[in-house]
């Protein structure tokens, strides 16, 4: 356990060294959320609510979805792909800790850093400028944090899968990009899933992606009520466990056919 | 000219390297298509809940998206400089570039090109013709020429913005993470700018002029006469922003000190 905390800490400190640049990032994020806000105002065009979400809830949804993204998002798929291409992965695999766990912990260090230095100040600024509604209910916040922890786990597992795929494809920038697009669309980051036509919603309910963005954002905006919240959290928990199987399966296969291209 | 022959030699080498990883190339074209589909899905889903967006119809929005894809794909094929700081400054690759007797920016354009992105031009044209047909737009004999002019203008706008951002790397080599977000902001130029408030409209017109890649030039083809002035400003804005960016680049290169290894 101690070694994992150390990995999180080191990655956190690495990110801390570059913290000033994050303030420019907050500005850009705010412009992004602002533009989204006006786009959605135009889409609502005076309507009270669409699919049970009011314009205020919609704005809150967008703001929290992008801020939560800063926490669960990481580039470990690219990092793994890079280490495989450069042959560094051979050295990494000799080290006395599981490679995949280490990558996950590094992602977590990065996520915690962004949550503290990016999402929190970003959210405060956005809340001052745009009409968003922050819940005053402590349990909503608690459930939200539980939910984004699952988001992190699910998203990271999918990233690991995409990264490990490099063992088989050698060069998989295309796959990583495709994965990112699929997640943006199916996770509910750009559109709440309830806006899609019914048949599409049915398909997506069988996929793990809604656990990445839609569920935590809906919990935060209180678009989910009562038992819906617990069902959603259960869904996230099940996917977090279920995805362990393909990750380790693929990893075992990958180790067997490792080709180090140089190093 | 020497630069043209260098260009074609690089293209030749590029094709060889790409054909080595054929599976990846197919996945990459597929992922581009997927990305374009996502944006169309967004428009379709949104118009499932409303009929007009600030007075613009669904087909008009789809047309704008189709137009946008053409300059954007040209930009994406040749100006892959979003990771310039990491790739060239932090790793010291810029040293290698600077020892060669060809303009440094030109070399980076050549090294980082991704010709498969040009496939997006085809997608864009298909989308435009589809939407244009539904809207009953007519094509005059001079429209293709204006189209080419506006596309070049739009591509230069994009290139100018991203080159200018990349030059930050010459002054500060730490990570900014601005670039990925910029791609996102670029998307807002595709929506009718009058939906935004004054600040954002101003930013999208004069500071990060992404509106000149989407809604302004498209309004010419959609016969929205109130925007014609902006539509015809597109090539001017493109050239001005590109020249500013290249100037910044030339100044920036003199500040480059190398990262050491």
UniProtKB/TrEMBL annotation, chain A:
<dbReference type="InterPro" id="IPR010390">
    <property type="entry name" value="ABC-2_transporter-like"/>
</dbReference>
<feature type="transmembrane region" description="Helical">
    <location>
        <begin position="21"/>
        <end position="40"/>
    </location>
</feature>
<keyword id="KW-0812">Transmembrane</keyword>
<feature type="transmembrane region" description="Helical">
    <location>
        <begin position="181"/>
        <end position="199"/>
    </location>
</feature>
<feature type="transmembrane region" description="Helical">
    <location>
        <begin position="237"/>
        <end position="254"/>
    </location>
</feature>
<keyword id="KW-0472">Membrane</keyword>
<feature type="transmembrane region" description="Helical">
    <location>
        <begin position="144"/>
        <end position="169"/>
    </location>
</feature>
<protein>
    <submittedName>
        <fullName>ABC-2 family transporter protein</fullName>
    </submittedName>
</protein>
<feature type="transmembrane region" description="Helical">
    <location>
        <begin position="52"/>
        <end position="72"/>
    </location>
</feature>
<keyword id="KW-1133">Transmembrane helix</keyword>
<feature type="transmembrane region" description="Helical">
    <location>
        <begin position="112"/>
        <end position="132"/>
    </location>
</feature>
<dbReference type="Pfam" id="PF06182">
    <property type="entry name" value="ABC2_membrane_6"/>
</dbReference>
From TrEMBL, chain B:
<feature type="transmembrane region" description="Helical">
    <location>
        <begin position="25"/>
        <end position="50"/>
    </location>
</feature>
<dbReference type="Pfam" id="PF06182">
    <property type="entry name" value="ABC2_membrane_6"/>
</dbReference>
<keyword id="KW-1133">Transmembrane helix</keyword>
<keyword id="KW-0812">Transmembrane</keyword>
<keyword id="KW-0472">Membrane</keyword>
<feature type="transmembrane region" description="Helical">
    <location>
        <begin position="62"/>
        <end position="82"/>
    </location>
</feature>
<feature type="transmembrane region" description="Helical">
    <location>
        <begin position="199"/>
        <end position="221"/>
    </location>
</feature>
<feature type="transmembrane region" description="Helical">
    <location>
        <begin position="227"/>
        <end position="251"/>
    </location>
</feature>
<protein>
    <submittedName>
        <fullName>ABC-2 family transporter protein</fullName>
    </submittedName>
</protein>
<feature type="transmembrane region" description="Helical">
    <location>
        <begin position="144"/>
        <end position="171"/>
    </location>
</feature>
<dbReference type="InterPro" id="IPR010390">
    <property type="entry name" value="ABC-2_transporter-like"/>
</dbReference>
<feature type="transmembrane region" description="Helical">
    <location>
        <begin position="115"/>
        <end position="132"/>
    </location>
</feature>
């Amino acid at each position: 356990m101690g070694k994992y905390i150390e990995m999180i800490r080191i990655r956190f400190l690495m990110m801390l060294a570059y913290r000033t640049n994050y303030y420019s990032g907050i500005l850009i994020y705010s412009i992004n959320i602002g533009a989204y806000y006006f786009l959605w105002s135009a889409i609502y065009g005076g309507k009270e609510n669409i699919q049970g979400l009011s314009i205020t809830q919609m704005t809150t949804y967008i703001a929290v979805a992008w801020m939560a993204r800063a926490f669960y998002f990481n580039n470990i798929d690219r990092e793994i792909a890079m280490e495989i291409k450069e042959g560094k992965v051979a050295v990494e695999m000799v080290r006395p800790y599981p490679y995949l766990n280490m990558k996950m912990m590094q992602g977590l260090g990065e996520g915690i850093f962004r949550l503290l230095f990016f999402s929190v100040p970003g959210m405060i600024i956005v809340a001052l400028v745009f009409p968003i509604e922050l819940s005053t209910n402590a349990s909503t916040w608690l459930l939200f944090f539980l939910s984004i922890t699952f988001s992190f786990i699910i998203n990271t597992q999918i990233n690991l899968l995409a990264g490990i795929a490099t063992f088989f494809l050698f060069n998989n920038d295309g796959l990583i990009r495709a994965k990112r697009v699929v997640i943006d669309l199916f996770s509910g980051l750009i559109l709440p899933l309830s806006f899609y036509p019914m048949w599409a919603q049915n398909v997506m309910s069988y996929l793990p992606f809604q656990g990445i963005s839609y569920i935590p954002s809906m919990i935060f905006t209180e678009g989910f009520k009562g038992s819906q919240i617990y069902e959603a959290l259960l869904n996230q928990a099940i996917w977090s466990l279920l995805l362990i199987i393909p990750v380790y399966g693929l990893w075992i296969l990958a180790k067997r056919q490792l080709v180090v291209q140089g190093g | 000219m020497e630069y043209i022959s260098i260009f074609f030699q690089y293209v030749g080498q590029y094709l060889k390297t790409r054909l080595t990883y054929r599976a990846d190339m197919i996945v990459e074209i597929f992922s581009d298509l997927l990305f374009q589909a996502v944006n169309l899905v967004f428009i379709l889903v949104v118009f499932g809940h409303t009929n007009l967006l600030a007075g613009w119809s669904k087909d008009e929005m789809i047309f704008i998206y189709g137009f946008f894809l053409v300059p954007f794909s040209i930009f994406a094929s040749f100006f892959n400089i979003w990771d310039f700081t990491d790739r060239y400054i932090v790793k010291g690759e810029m040293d290698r570039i600077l020892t060669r007797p060809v303009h440094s920016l030109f070399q980076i354009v050549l090294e980082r090109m991704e010709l498969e992105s040009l496939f997006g031009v085809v997608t864009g044209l298909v989308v435009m013709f589809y939407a244009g047909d539904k809207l009953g737009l007519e094509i005059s004999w001079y429209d293709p020429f204006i189209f080419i002019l506006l596309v070049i203008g739009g591509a230069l706008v994009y290139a100018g913005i991203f080159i200018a951002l990349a030059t930050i790397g010459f002054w500060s080599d730490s990570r900014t993470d601005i670039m990925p977000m910029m791609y996102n902001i670029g998307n807002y130029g595709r929506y009718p700018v009058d939906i935004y408030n004054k600040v954002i409209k101003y930013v999208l017109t004069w500071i990060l002029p992404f509106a000149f890649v989407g809604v302004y030039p498209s309004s010419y083809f959609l016969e929205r006469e109130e925007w014609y002035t902006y539509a015809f400003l597109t090539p001017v804005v493109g050239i001005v922003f590109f020249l500013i960016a290249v100037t910044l680049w030339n100044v920036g290169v003199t500040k480059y000190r190398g990262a050491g290894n």
